[in-house]
Specification:
Pfam families: DUF1801. By secondary structure, the protein is of the alpha+beta class. It is built from two helices and five strands. Helices cover 28% and strands 26% of the residues. A hairpin with a 3-residue loop joins strand 2 (39-43) and strand 3 (47-53). It is globular.
Length: 113
């Protein structure tokens, strides 16, 4: 991916995830011709989330997001999905870093329950 706002945001999200869950394992999955780098996934006692880059946004999908409390209202996509929830971040958006880190910690706790 060319260095632009999306790659900078993915780097920030990666840092936030690994700070909130230092033992999380990052892997690239689902490589294909249109996405040779694959999709970054983060796991600890199960899948925490994936981070996908699109032309107009970065999408962070929490595997069990429907079971997570979201008091700060970060989830704004996949709201009708049975299990997952996602955060779409567009150019110029700000991400509440503390609330995001809380979601990551809660996702790990849910995986370990």
């Amino acid at each position: 991916m060319a260095a632009d706002w999306r790659s900078e945001l993915v780097d920030l999200i990666r840092t936030l995830i690994l700070q909130a869950a230092p033992d999380a394992v990052e892997e690239a999955k689902w490589r294909k011709a249109s996405n040779p780098d694959g999709v970054p996934t983060f796991s600890r006692s199960g899948l925490i989330c994936t981070v996908e880059t699109y032309k107009d946004k970065v999408k962070v999908t929490f595997a069990k997001g429907a079971s997570l409390a979201d008091p700060d209202g970060l989830f704004n996509a996949s709201l009708d999905a049975g299990t997952r929830r996602a955060i779409d971040v567009f150019a110029g958006d700000s991400l509440d870093q503390d609330a995001f880190a809380d979601l990551v910690r809660d996702a790990v706790a849910l995986n370990q329950a």
